[in-house]
Design brief:
The chain is an alpha/beta fold. It has a single domain (32-206), classed as 3-Layer(aba) Sandwich (Rossmann fold), CATH 3.40.50.360. It is built from eight helices and nine strands. It has helices spanning 7-29, 46-57, 78-84, 88-99, 116-128, 151-160, 177-180, 190-206, and strands at 33-38, 62-66, 102-107, 109-110, 113-114, 137-143, 167-174, 181-182, 186-187. It has a five-stranded parallel β-sheet with strand order 2-1-3-6-7, with helices on both faces. Helix 4 packs across helix 5. It starts with 6 loop residues before the first helix and ends with a helix. 28% of the residues are buried. The model has no long low-confidence stretch (mean pLDDT 94). The structure holds flavin mononucleotide. Flavin mononucleotide binds next to helix 2 and strand 4.
């Protein structure tokens, strides 16, 4: 014999389904967070310019943009660590990284490698937590006024970030910054602008 389910039971099931429907909608529309910064602490950093331009193109994300001028760190030494511990800035950086779904970084090149500033930052973070980039996807870029486009620094940092658990999912080097970049228009060379767009798509697909 067919038994009609009780009204209370039907309402409970409906509430249950509604809960999952709302959760699904919230997850679908939750904006992913991207933390973006340059490897340079220069107030006129061209890598910061590239980072700003790039994040402006990542429209469907919540962007946290850091200007490293505000993140000055003492030079790492075990003595400084033992005497003063970790500065609030290192702890803040680590928290910002942890809260992000993905990272956009553009490193500057000094003498064929990353700047002392950026290396120092990695050293401090690695002392605070060896796995400070755990499962973080990274779009890694570099630019310089020269034809190399900071590719020496980019290659070294690309190999280094996995030590800390990071995964570099896309890379882009912009050569001859002053020739190929305009404050208003961004990347002006068509081929490079296309490559940059492709790299953004690659990154977006991964986070
Ligand atoms: C100490 C020093 C070393 C540099 N070495 C290189 C280099 O090896 N390759 C390069 O392309 N540019 C080099 N440059 C030029 C930088 O790429 C240029 O200063 C650039 O603006 C740095 O990026 P930023 O403005 O984001 O700090 C060097 C600059 C300095 C101050």
């Amino acid at each position: 014999m067919f038994c009609r389910p009780k009204l209370g039971k039907i309402l409970a099931i409906e509430r249950y389904l509604e809960y999952f429907r709302m959760k699904w909608i919230k997850d679908l529309y939750k904006m992913k967070k991207i933390l973006a910064f340059a490897g340079s602490n220069s107030s006129s950093s061209i890598n910061f310019e590239l980072v700003k331009y790039t994040t402006n193109l990542l429209e469907t994300y919540e962007i946290q943009l850091l200007n490293m001028v505000d993140y000055q760190l003492p030079m790492y030494s075990i003595d400084v660590e033992n005497t003063h511990g970790f500065s609030a800035i290192v702890k803040q950086l680590k928290e910002n990284i942890q809260n992000a779904d993905g990272l956009v970084i553009a490193v500057n090149e000094h003498n064929g490698g990353p700047s002392a500033y950026f290396k120092n930052m990695l050293d401090w973070l690695s002392r605070l937590d060896r796995n400070f980039l755990k499962e973080k996807k990274v779009l890694l870029m570099a630019t310089s006024p020269g034809r190399g486009g900071g590719s020496g620094a980019l290659e070294i940092v690309k190999r280094t970030l996995p030590f800390f658990g990071g995964e570099v999912v896309a890379t882009f080097s912009l050569p001859s910054f002053n020739h190929n970049f305009d404050q208003e228009q961004g990347i002006t060379e068509i081929g490079l602008a296309k490559d940059h767009k492709k790299v953004l798509q690659q990154f977006s697909a991964q986070i």
